[in-house]
Design the sequence.
């Protein structure tokens, strides 16, 4: 005998199916929480700031010390209220980077209590001192009083879009560790803590660039007027013509967007075997870069700005401002920038084509060495 299936039976079946799926989902979430090391609440769950008072006290911060396996640097606020990098003879620090670091510390939310066993801190990358693997940050005021001190450790989840990540932290001097929501804006190196602002020199202003490479013949490129788009080689070698206009433009483009990796005092470098480059603008500003061997990854550059006697006062003021900024410092310029700043004459010219032929750039030439290398 066949039993008829009613609408009520179908509805009961659907209800049982939804209950079964809900149970499966709950188990999956629980398994994920265990495997990822994250709890779904309970006795260990918390909701508080790592440093509740830091935001209000941030203006009193006068020194920040960062110690980690990748960077060791001290930032100090000078008498004028400007942040400097103590490890680089008090060169100006990246003020926005300092601000971001303090804000990121003040915004760390503790969400879960973790181990208080010092023996387990290494696994969470929260150890300090010799062989430590954590990132220790200490903020003090002008009197030396500690405002906030912490160790940041292993990142558990990375930020995604507007969703913050999570990482392990502990307060300095405490063994208790926490899982926190947020991130820490620590500079990746001493160089990253420096203020990379130098000066603005619009490439459209540049009239002439003179190259005086060590041990090689000097040459120059120039434009007749500001409206002239292309640079020309002032004295072409026999049998040569200018390379592509974009190649001749690279020095002007490089100085307009000049960047550096690091800085030291100018008197710490020797001026032997120097290559000089002089950029001159149509309105009378001259910037001389003395480039010295600095290893395979770049050169050290000393810079001096001057203004012609006939230049407008604004240009003279500009030269004085540049000198006030860069005078007395040797900047580590990365190799890829040097290649564009100081190309060899061979890069700026190509063979003159035979009658009826189209000039073709030479291929397979070796990249020239850094300024200061022997030819």
Sequence:
């Amino acid at each position: 005998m066949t039993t008829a299936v009613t609408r009520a039976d179908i509805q009961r079946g659907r209800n049982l199916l939804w209950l079964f799926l809900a149970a499966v989902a709950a188990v999956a979430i629980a398994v994920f929480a265990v495997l990822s090391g994250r709890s779904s609440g309970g006795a260990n769950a918390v909701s508080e700031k790592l440093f509740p008072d830091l935001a209000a006290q941030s203006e009193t911060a006068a020194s920040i010390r960062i110690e980690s396996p990748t960077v060791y640097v001290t930032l100090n606020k000078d008498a004028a209220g400007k942040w400097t990098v103590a490890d680089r003879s008090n060169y100006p620090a990246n003020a926005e980077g300092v601000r971001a670091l303090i804000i990121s510390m003040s915004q760390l939310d503790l969400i879960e209590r973790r181990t208080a066993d010092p023996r387990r801190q290494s696994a969470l990358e929260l150890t300090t001192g010799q062989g430590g693997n954590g990132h220790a940050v200490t903020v003090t005021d002008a009197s030396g009083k500690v405002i906030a001190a912490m160790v940041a450790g292993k990142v558990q989840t990375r930020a995604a879009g507007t969703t913050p990540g999570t990482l392990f932290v502990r307060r300095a001097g405490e063994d208790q560790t926490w899982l926190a929501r947020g991130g820490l804006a620590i500079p990746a190196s001493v160089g990253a803590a420096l203020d990379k602002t130098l000066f603005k020199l619009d490439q459209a202003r540049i009239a002439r660039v003179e190259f005086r490479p060590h041990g090689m013949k000097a040459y120059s490129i120039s434009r007749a007027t500001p409206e002239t788009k292309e640079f020309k080689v002032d004295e072409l070698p026999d049998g040569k013509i200018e390379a592509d206009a974009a190649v001749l433009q690279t020095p002007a483009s490089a100085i307009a967007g000049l960047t550096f990796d690091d800085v030291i005092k100018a008197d710490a470098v020797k001026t032997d075997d120097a290559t000089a480059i002089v950029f001159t603008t149509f309105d009378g500003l001259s910037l001389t870069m003395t480039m010295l061997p600095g290893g395979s990854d770049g050169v050290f550059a000393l810079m001096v700005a001057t203004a012609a006697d006939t230049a407008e006062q604004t240009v003279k003021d500009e030269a004085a401002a540049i000198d006030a900024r860069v005078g007395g410092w040797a900047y580590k310029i990365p190799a890829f920038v040097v290649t564009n700043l100081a190309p060899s004459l061979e890069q700026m010219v190509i063979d003159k084509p035979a009658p009826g032929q189209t000039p073709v750039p030479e291929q397979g030439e070796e990249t020239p060495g850094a300024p200061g290398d022997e030819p």
Notes: Helices lie at 7-36, 54-57, 95-106, 245-256, 313-326, 335-341, 345-348.
